[in-house]
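Our platform keeps sequence and structure together, in a single record for each protein. Such a record has a labelled line for the sequence and another for the backbone structure tokens. This encoding replaces a full spatial description with a residue-level series of whole-number codes. Below, we set out a record of this kind in full and without editing:
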Amino acid sequence: MMNVEPVELDGKTAIAIEVKLPKTTLLVVTTDKGYIMCGALDVALLNERLSDRQIIAARATGVKTIGELLDAPLESVTHTAEEMGIFAGMTGRDAVLKMM
């Protein structure tokens, strides 16, 4: 099952995507510039093999809901996200706001 919903943050709208898979759930909050995702995101792949795409993305681990993804400290971020002022340790919510 897949669920897509708007998420309002400081008067702006991001999109939350939840994909229920066997034994796991993929969680994403996306904007037109970048996204945050649960532990399934491979930040190293984005930084190394897909670096030419300059993807703005960040990962939070141990989250089970969109709310937890927004509230959790980021575990890792892409190099391009760092250039925007998004860093490991900041909350997913703060990262999404910088992506808007």
Summary: The chain has four helices and six strands.
